[in-house]
Amino acid sequence: MPKPKMTRPTGLVPLLVAAIAASLLSVAAASNTTTTSSQPGRLQGLLVQVSRWRERHLAAPSSSLSGGGAAHGVRPNTVAAWVLSFLAASVSSAGGVGGGSLFLPIVNVVAGLSLKRATAYSSFMVTGGAVSNVLYNLLACAGGGSGGGQLINYDIALLFQPCLLLGVSIGVVCNVMFPEWLITVLFSLFLVFCTAKTYHAGVKIWRSESSGGGHHSSKEPLLPTDAQDGRGNGVGFPWPEVALLVMIWICFFALHVVIGDKDGKGVIRIKPCSVAYWLVTLFQLPAAVAFTCYILYAKRKKQVAHNQEDGKSDLVEARMDTLPSLTFPLVAFVTGALSGIFGIGGGLLLNPVLLQIGIPPQTTAATTSFMVLFSASMSMAQYILLGMEGIGQASIYAGICFVASVVGVVVIERAIRRSGRVSLIVLLVTAVLALSTVIVTVFGAQDVWMQYISGAYMGFKLPC
């Protein structure tokens, strides 16, 4: 019997090839010492010109934005940044990705803000998109939409959150110690790996849907429609789980506020790298272990009670039970560490990880957005407490991302309903990963090259 003809998405292949090529360029830019001294070449000239253009572009609007921006009105590049931010937020939120890797170059290059200020703005934008996405998922499930099941898996969020925040703290320390060229190369290679793995997973689901034999058919709801623990279909809200997540957030946030920034600016004056500084920092380890042990104990207790009640478990619970108990905490720690090293939100890393574990795409997107809300809001609150400038302008970007996230989720949900392909979420995540790979690698390679030819120190540093 001939196999049915299957369409295969091939538009992402050029992006993958471009990402790999850009990654190789970044390695060459960081290691080649003989060729550049004898032959500057076209690449060096191009990078120098782009760097000069960026410096002029950043210098021009920064003065007007800081003080006299109101007198001159809204600049055209600011409007362009708003439009691009809207598009980036729509695509990112639909796939459950925070979008920080897309927001950062938009605000930095197009809007003309410094990299430090653009990083703070990006945390506002990711938070705005995550709030919108989480509210939509909660309202959709309460109204019986989106397959009629509970999309956000709070057990996964609880298992990830403590070790994820611990990993971020350790990753930040590594970010300070590692040279920029090493971070650029590692990040580029990691994104290429995630892009390839996610693309293959999306193609596999696409083929399964085309042949009519997949678990993600439009005729079959992604999650069961019966109420589970009184929470399915919006019957009840998981207040204990959410309260515990908020408690974890407050605990780690309080520690970060006490520690302060790299200059020791916090609630109390603690000298960076002093004994008190490291004691407060290391306290995150027992806190994360204690929270994780309690969550694992509560999960096993609830699972036993649920099995005794009806002997059934949903699709996500069944897949989680096949994994060792420490799989999620360990994966969360590694993901958080990579997130801290690379200086981005966890959504770009969490989404591929959950997909590879075997969590359904819709549950992955909703749960990732929920976890990103906690991590991004913590970064945003830290920037506010540490005296961030331009909160009003950052709030405008956050509002744009809030609206754009709803648009993106609604559009992709309608596309899934019409096509019957949940694989669209996976392929959308692949597109965001590929685009982020190209953007981060190209600009990272340019910055590394300019540091190299200017004679800047490119070795490892001390944490303080």
Give structural notes.
InterPro entries: TM_pro_TauE-like. The chain crosses the membrane at residues 79-106, 118-139, 151-174, 181-199, 242-259, 275-297, 330-351, 363-385, 391-412, 424-445. Keywords: Membrane, Signal, Transmembrane, Transmembrane helix. It is found in: Membrane. It is a multi-pass membrane protein. This protein is 74% helix and 0% strand. It is mostly helical. It contains 17 helices and no strands. The longest helix is centred in the N-terminal third of the chain and has 32 residues, at 41-72. It is globular, with a radius of gyration of 23 Å. It has one domain (41-64, 73-453). The termini are far apart.
Percent in strands: under 5%
Instruction: Bin the helical content.
Output: over 70%
Give the SSE string.
Answer: HHHHHHHHHHHHHHHHH
Structural class by SSE content: mainly alpha
Our Rg estimate from Cα atoms comes to 23 Å
Number of discrete domains:
1
